[in-house]
C-alpha cells in the first residue's frame, strides 16, 4: 500500500512594491485523529491514528477521508506552519 504522508496547502501573499518586501508561506498538515468513538455511550475513546493519510487524489471526494482510520479530515488536528520570507530588490 502506497502511503500519502501529508496534505500541504501553500499561500503566497504578493510582495509589496518596495525595495524590501516579504511574503508568507503557510504549510497545513493534519496530525492525529481526535474523533471520540465512544461519545454515544458517554465515554471517551480515540482510535490511535497518528497522522492523516488521504485516501484519494487531491480534488476528489476521497482526498478528505483518512486511509488509516476512515474518518473525515476535520477530525484530525490541524497544524499550520507559517514562515515569513524576505526578498530584496536591487
UniProtKB/TrEMBL annotation:
Entry-linked InterPro entries: ZF_HD_homeobox_Cys/His_dimer (IPR006456)
A GO molecular-function descriptor: zinc ion binding
Keyword terms of this UniProt record: Cytoplasm, Metal-binding, Zinc, Zinc-finger
A GO biological-process term: regulation of developmental process
PROSITE patterns per record: ZF_HD_DIMER (PS51523)
Signal peptide: none
The ZF-HD dimerization-type domain, residue ranges: 30-79
Keyword set includes Metal-binding: yes
Pfam families: ZF-HD_dimer
Zinc recorded as keyword: yes
One annotated Gene Ontology cellular component of this protein: nucleus
Compartments where located: Cytoplasm
PANTHER family linked to this entry: MINI ZINC FINGER PROTEIN 2, ZINC-FINGER HOMEODOMAIN PROTEIN 2
Full protein name: ZF-HD dimerization-type domain-containing protein
Amino acid at each position: 500500500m502506497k502511503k500519502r504522508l501529508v496534505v500541504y496547502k501553500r499561500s503566497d501573499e504578493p510582495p509589496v512594491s518596495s525595495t524590501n518586501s516579504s511574503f508568507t508561506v503557510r504549510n497545513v498538515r493534519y496530525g492525529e485523529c481526535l474523533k471520540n468513538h465512544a461519545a454515544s455511550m458517554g465515554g471517551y475513546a480515540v482510535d490511535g491514528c497518528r497522522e492523516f493519510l488521504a485516501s484519494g487524489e487531491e480534488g476528489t471526494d476521497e482526498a478528505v477521508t483518512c486511509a488509516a482510520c476512515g474518518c473525515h479530515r476535520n477530525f484530525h488536528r490541524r497544524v499550520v506552519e507559517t514562515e515569513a520570507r524576505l526578498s530584496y530588490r536591487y
